[in-house]
Q: What sequence folds into this?
């Protein structure tokens, strides 16, 4: 089966975020939403329009954003706090640690503009370290949805789990690759395509790129298994091990540094459970550049061609 | 209860608890606990804070957050006196074992929120990492306003602590939102861990800064009970603005050799010093 992923319908996850916030706001009067002067970009302004009393814009002050979010959560409210990934996770990290993670507060940190596809804003705004920063915090769940279908399923599931979550979105429109009847389950990965030669475990926009890559490699006789690992913490250890045992080679793919993110999480599981050939595909240990989103992705190697190279590398290691 | 002599008697008892806790643990922060304790005594035992120690999660309770969390001995001594925790639990301060459900201590070096698995009943936030308390108090105050509840939120900051930028993000926000159910107290003892606040990075004039952000500001002697009482009354009666009480205090207040000496920020007394401190406090010098 050959599909051109680029022909599939696309939607930005943040558009879904704004819509789902309004849906949840209608059924949960206990919920409040906070933003730090980026509500148009994060789409929390949709909640603001629907529920002006329950929306708070703290201005350009992300430490205060987290502190106020904690105050709300201490009083028993369900809190959403949003900003760009760089400002939401990096700048107030220690306050997130001290308040949200330590106290296991019911706060959903929903970050937009994650990864290098922020594009033209350049390296200052390209957050490639947030999964790493958040994953290391005790009690923090980390989710990176692959498309807007998954985004909706994730939000509607985790809204009712009274724990801290970090949910990461890119700015761009992502192709819709998850089936409409898909149900997100915390700590579970999802096999999008079965294969026998190599496992690609991906998250975020790289899931669709992995799928495209798998279809193209099929023509070369390479049978790629594609796993969407949206739940990075907790991670699906069982599925990783099962797939690795089957194929004997794993490639991780993420729009994030190869250090500390999905690749590291999978490496930890494999080295503990079943050492397997592993190649990590992501942003190398470097800062980004300015340029249109998909051009920057291409330059960083976050493309079908880039992933093919990593898969070939993994296969060559396997045959040695 | 507004009997000043009785309040002073309570504060003397709490000072002894503070010194004893730090001495027992051979670790902790006596200086900033002693500077804060007169204000906390009036807040908790002078009829200002609305609370029920038998029901620490009572929704309509007033909240107090000790943002300068290193002064935890002051908070713990108050919580024991108020009946949130048994007095003997004070012996578990900074110790491994204690009264948490899993057997660990709930009286950590810096307080953990009562909902935390190692939190202490009556602690309204996890603090210790400085600069965060005012933002948290704002969240609680906004939540109360949204729920149309009439509870008030009090937060104590250190004068050194407000060097943290986050505290000014919060000050700006609270003024903007006219949070009159919020009262901040600055325990202005002039000393931080490395020395004199004015010499390290001067944060004065504090009162003018808060006023510029739209606060009502009151300046008092933080060891003068009538002034503390008047200030809390004024804060409650101030509408349309948050109130800050800048309380001039003496670090180490009540123990002569600790007073105004920054070296006593985070040091425990030895046996001789402890006995000398007890003698001074029981002799009623305060």
A:
């Amino acid at each position: 089966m050959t599909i051109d992923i680029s022909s599939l319908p696309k939607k930005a996850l943040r558009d879904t975020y704004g819509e789902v916030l309004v849906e949840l706001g209608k059924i949960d009067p206990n919920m409040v939403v906070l933003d730090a002067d980026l509500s148009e970009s994060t789409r929390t302004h949709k909640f603001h329009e629907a529920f002006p009393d329950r929306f708070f814009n703290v201005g350009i002050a992300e430490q205060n954003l987290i502190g106020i979010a904690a105050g709300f959560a201490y009083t028993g409210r369900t809190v959403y706090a949003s900003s760009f990934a760089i400002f939401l996770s990096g700048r107030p990290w220690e306050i997130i640690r001290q308040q949200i993670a330590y106290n296991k507060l019911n706060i959903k940190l929903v970050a937009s503009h994650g990864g290098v596809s922020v594009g033209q804003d350049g390296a200052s705004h390209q957050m490639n370290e947030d999964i790493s920063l958040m994953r290391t915090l005790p009690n923090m769940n980390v989710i990176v949805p692959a498309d807007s279908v998954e985004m909706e399923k994730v939000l509607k599931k985790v809204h009712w789990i009274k724990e801290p979550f970090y949910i990461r979105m890119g700015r761009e429109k992502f192709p819709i690759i998850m089936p409409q009847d898909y149900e997100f389950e915390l700590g579970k990965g999802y096999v999008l395509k079965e294969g026998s030669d190599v496992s690609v475990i991906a998250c975020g926009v790289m899931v669709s790129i992995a799928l495209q890559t798998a279809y193209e490699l099929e023509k070369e006789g390479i049978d790629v298994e594609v796993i969407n690992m949206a739940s990075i913490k907790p991670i699906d250890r069982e599925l990783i091990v099962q797939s690795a045992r089957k194929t004997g080679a794993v490639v991780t793919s993420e729009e994030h540094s190869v250090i500390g993110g999905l690749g590291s999480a999978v490496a930890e599981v494999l080295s503990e459970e079943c050492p397997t050939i592993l190649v990590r595909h992501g942003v190398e240990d470097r800062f980004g550049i300015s340029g249109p989103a998909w051009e920057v992705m291409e330059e960083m190697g976050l493309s079908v061609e880039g992933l093919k190279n990593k898969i070939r590398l993994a296969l060559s290691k396997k045959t040695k | 209860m507004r009997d000043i002599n009785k309040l002073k008697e309570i504060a003397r008892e709490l000072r002894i608890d503070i010194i004893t806790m730090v001495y027992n643990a051979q670790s902790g922060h006596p200086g900033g606990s002693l500077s804060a304790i007169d204000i906390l005594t009036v807040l908790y035992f002078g009829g200002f804070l609305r609370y029920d120690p038998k029901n620490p999660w009572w929704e309509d309770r007033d909240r107090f957050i000790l943002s300068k969390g290193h002064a935890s001995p002051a908070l713990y001594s108050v919580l024991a006196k108020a009946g949130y925790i048994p007095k003997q639990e004070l012996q578990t301060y900074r110790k491994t074992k204690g009264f948490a459900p899993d057997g660990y201590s709930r009286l950590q070096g810096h307080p953990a929120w009562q909902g935390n698995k190692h939190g202490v009943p009556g602690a309204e936030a996890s603090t210790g990492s400085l600069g965060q308390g005012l933002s948290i108090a704002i969240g609680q105050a906004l939540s109360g306003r949204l729920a149309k509840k009439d509870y008030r939120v009090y937060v104590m900051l250190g004068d050194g602590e407000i060097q943290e930028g986050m505290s000014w993000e919060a000050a700006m926000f609270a003024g903007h939102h006219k949070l009159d159910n919020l009262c901040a107290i600055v325990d202005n003892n002039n000393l931080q861990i490395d020395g004199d606040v004015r010499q390290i990075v001067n944060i004065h004039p504090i009162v003018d800064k808060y006023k510029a952000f739209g606060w009502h500001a009151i300046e008092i002697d933080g060891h003068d009970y009538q002034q503390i009482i008047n200030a809390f009354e004024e804060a409650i009666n101030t509408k349309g603005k948050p109130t800050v009480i800048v309380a001039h205090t003496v670090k180490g207040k009540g123990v002569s050799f600790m007073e105004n000496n920054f070296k006593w920020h985070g040091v425990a007394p030895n046996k001789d010093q402890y006995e000398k401190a007890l003698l001074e406090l029981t002799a009623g010098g305060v």
